[in-house]
Amino acid sequence: MIESGVTFDFGQLVMDNEFVRMVRHAVGGVPVTDELLGVDDIREVGPFGDFLSLDSTLKFMRSQSQSRLIDRRVREDWAADGGSDLYARSTAEARRLLDEHEPEPLPDDVLREIRAIVDGADRDAAARSRSGASSSQGSTV
């Protein structure tokens, strides 16, 4: 338990973020319309027809949850590309984010408020330190 409180895995955080994004997509509901159901395409193609070659199939397939990290390619393509696992890809993405991310600067009013809070805490700590030192010096018997 102590170990889990003092260690942190950026790769795991990236994986967790991906899982949460996918769950949010799933719980957002599935829109149901004639176009999304492909009612006209089903009528036109008919039973046992080829739906995979339709433009609408590709268009609406892309609107499904698309993982940025989970590799859904066929095994041969995955292996030919190095066969990296989810953890390796997540760790690489974490490193990329840490290397490339440029945080937006905080607005000046927020910086002033943070500075005021820190200065107040420093004053409180100094006052406690002085009062503790003087009480310990004055208690000699």
Question: How would you sum up this structure, described in words?
Answer:
By secondary structure, the chain is mostly helical. It folds into 2 domains: 2-102, no CATH class; 106-141. Helix content is 65%, strand content 0%. The protein contains 8 helices and no strands. The protein has helices at residues 2-6, 10-27, 34-37, 39-45, 55-61, 75-80, 86-100, 108-137. It is elongated, with a radius of gyration of 28 Å.
- Summarize the main sheet: none
Per DSSP, the total helix count is 8
**Span of the ends, CA to CA:** 45 Å
Number of individual domains: 2
Summarize it.
This protein is mainly alpha-helical. About 65% of the residues lie in helices and about 0% in strands.
